[in-house]
Specification:
The structure is a single chain. The chain is mainly α. The chain has 3 domains: 14-39 and 54-67 and 180-311, no CATH class; 82-145 and 152-177 and 322-424, no CATH class; 428-629, Rossmann fold (3-Layer(aba) Sandwich), CATH 3.40.50. 62% of the residues lie in helices and 4% in strands.
């Protein structure tokens, strides 16, 4: 009891810090479960409607900003934030929380990648260094990595977000004492909100400049989620608790607010990705605002929403969300490469996603029980001493300890081997580089083409051919130049069918479009009939248009080839070069991505073009014969319109 006139101290922050434990906040485990579920579904089951599930990362950012700031503002730490000893203690606890599980994932998965070999090892040294130093995002930016490109996957690509959070853990405890020097709770909150707005603005500017990966990976451009969480923590810290806060009406209102926040997160996850400010930062901000709203509702005094969000199995998933996030992407890559030779860029079958999910959840559960929990509870030295006691203990304990130590040593050795044996570039990149070198050193003068015998078709010389294409044609450039000396090749990486009309029109306007126009632009997405019509009209009635069909482990390829075939059937001056049919029996001539040809594969590509050019001559000869046989001396009726 209290004496008259002396009331117990109640405040919002005090209430939150005494829920179950000093570091447990109602609703955060459940919200972590929501966040990791969105990311996992986005990566493992891309066919589901969660096309924007990557916003789960931003939910994690908001949680981290709120949680870390709330812990630093605890009364026991508030007056000693700048103490070097206290800072070292804080960083040591973060290391206990993050490093053990991270080390297990990196060494185990890198060892598995070493066993599989090939393109999967490219950049392994940079990836391991980025994971170990929590600089993955900036190393990826410096390396020119395109997070959104459909190329050979990086095994630890998802670690970029861990780097952002760890950089926050290092810097924010140093800055918080300075922020607290600003008088007034709402002035501090306003400062942080403005900083968050500046971060979002900077992301939009980078995206407008075409550097989406830099905007997404950059700590400066992607800090707004962390800052929004910080603003909430500063707003509610030590806020006086009033009796009306515990009323049934207010609790009902907080439940509604929490549901609205959760709904905002789900809506953001359902929004399709764009390469402009609508998504970056628009959709990400929607998810961040929804997250901070849900957190606020969850930590409200006596919150129904917080208790409901922490219901099982959400709480179980939330406790292990860190491990699930770490494991799910590397496991998916390993499953796909090990079973079909390609990574997620070639599509993720449902069976592969389900297998990766089971393995990732199982691995995270084991890691949580035998790695994360012991290190978090006892620290590094005591945990290692415990392993030593097991090895020196009873027979069964000794076997378990020796087995654990052996696995650790093998994993470390496998990681070292993966780094040492990593190739400098993927086989696809090497093929593309050879093509670029060939184009840069090509002799502009056409070499004479031997005259065909009367039985042979007349093949145009290279000086009569213009070729426009994507990276497949670029990789085939050495063979095209060899087969058709003097050919003009205009090919670039990641070019789609939509680029075709502008390129052909530019060549036509400058008098550079030759008699035979070869177009290979079907690899990077579905073709559009209207675009094909535009290219056909630009080529005109006096030129031959050869469309090269596509071959790649992509879901749109059958549709591309079907559309190209139908279009050629309906147009007199359009033919198909059957690259897909010619390379299908020889996929061993392709790079590790199953798309780009090596030298021998490039010869097949050039052969497909040559066959199409032969067919043009044969069709012309047949048409002339049919014209001569026609009773009226007129050409036979053409079955399809131009």
């Amino acid at each position: 009891m209290t004496s008259p006139g002396c009331e117990p101290r109640h405040d919002f922050g005090h209430f939150m810090q005494n829920q179950t434990t000093l570091t447990r906040f109602a609703g955060l485990d459940g919200l972590r479960a929501v966040a990791v579920t969105l990311v996992v579904v986005y990566h493992l089951f891309p066919g589901l409607p969660m096309v924007g599930g990557f916003v789960g990362v931003d939910v994690f950012f908001v949680i981290s900003g709120f949680l870390i700031t709330s812990l630093l503002l605890r009364p026991s730490r508030l007056g000693r934030l700048a103490s070097p000893r206290r800072l070292i203690d804080f960083w040591r606890r973060r290391a206990r929380r993050l490093l053990p599980a991270l080390a297990v994932v990196v060494t185990v998965c890198a060892t598995a990648a070493w066993m599989l070999g090939g393109d999967l090892l490219v950049g392994m040294g940079r990836q391991v260094l980025g994971a170990a130093t929590f600089s993955y995002n900036w190393l990826a930016v410096a390396d020119g990595t395109d997070y959104f490109a459909a190329t050979a996957p990086e095994l630890f690509r998802n670690f970029w977000s861990l780097a952002v959070e760890e950089q926050f853990y290092v810097v924010w405890p140093l800055l918080l004492p300075l922020v607290l020097l600003i008088p007034g709770r709402w002035a501090r909150v306003a400062l942080v909100v403005v900083a968050g707005g500046g971060s979002a603005w900077w992301m939009a500017q980078l995206v407008a400049g075409g550097d989406v990966t830099r905007a997404y990976f950059g700590t400066d451009a992607h800090a707004f989620g962390l800052l929004i969480g910080i603003a909430l923590a500063l707003a509610v810290a030590n806020m006086p608790q009033k009796e009306w806060m515990l009323s049934r009406t207010v609790k009902s209102a907080s439940l509604l607010i929490g549901l609205l926040g959760l709904a905002a997160i789900v809506v953001a996850a359902l929004m399709p990705e764009t390469s402009d400010a609508v998504t970056f930062p628009g959709t990400l901000l929607l998810a961040s605002v929804g997250s901070v709203t849900a957190i606020f509702a969850g930590v409200w005094p006596g919150s129904w929403f917080g208790r409901a969000l922490d219901v099982q199995p959400l709480k179980w998933i939330g406790d292990r969300s860190y491990g699930i996030y770490l494991w799910h992407w590397p496991v998916l890559v390993l499953v796909l490469v090990g079973t079909q030779g390609f990574g997620p860029e070639a599509g993720v079958p449902v069976w592969a996603g389900a297998s990766a999910l089971v393995l990732a959840v199982g691995a995270s559960a084991v890691s949580y029980r035998f790695v994360e929990a012991p290190f978090r509870k006892y620290g590094f030295r005591h945990a290692m001493r415990g392993l030593g006691r097991r090895i020196a203990g009873r027979p069964m304990s000794k076997v378990a300890g020796i087995a654990a130590l052996t696995i650790a040593l093998v994993a470390i050795g496998g990681t070292a081997a993966a780094i040492v044996n990593a190739p400098h570039s993927t086989t696809a990149a090497a093929a593309i580089d050879r093509g670029e070198d060939a184009l840069n050193t090509a002799d502009e003068k056409a070499k004479p083409t031997p005259k065909p015998t009367p039985q042979e078709a007349v093949i145009p010389e290279g000086t009569e051919i213009t070729a426009v294409g994507d990276s497949v044609m670029l990789a085939s450039a050495p063979s095209l130049l060899e087969e058709f000396p003097g050919i003009e090749v205009d090919a670039e990486v990641s070019r789609s069918i939509w680029a075709g009309p502008d390129i052909l029109q530019h060549l036509e306007d400058n008098g550079q479009l030759r008699q035979n126009v070869v177009v290979g632009l079907g690899t990077n997405g579905p073709v559009d009939w209207g675009v094909l019509e535009q290219m056909s009209k630009i080529a005109g009635p006096d030129r031959n248009l050869i469309l090269v069909n596509a071959h790649a482990p992509r879901e749109w390829i059958p549709g591309v080839n079907s559309d190209i075939e139908k279009f050629a059937d309906r147009h007199r001056r359009v033919w198909v070069a059957d690259w897909s049919g010619d390379i299908a029996p020889h996929e061993d001539l392709l790079a590790g991505d199953g798309i780009h040809p090596g030298k021998a594969g490039g010869d097949v590509f050039a052969g497909s073009v040559e066959t199409a050019l032969e067919q043009i001559d044969k069709d012309r000869a047949r048409a002339e014969k049919d014209f001569a046989k026609a009773p009226t001396g007129r050409a036979p009726r053409i079955p399809f319109p131009e």
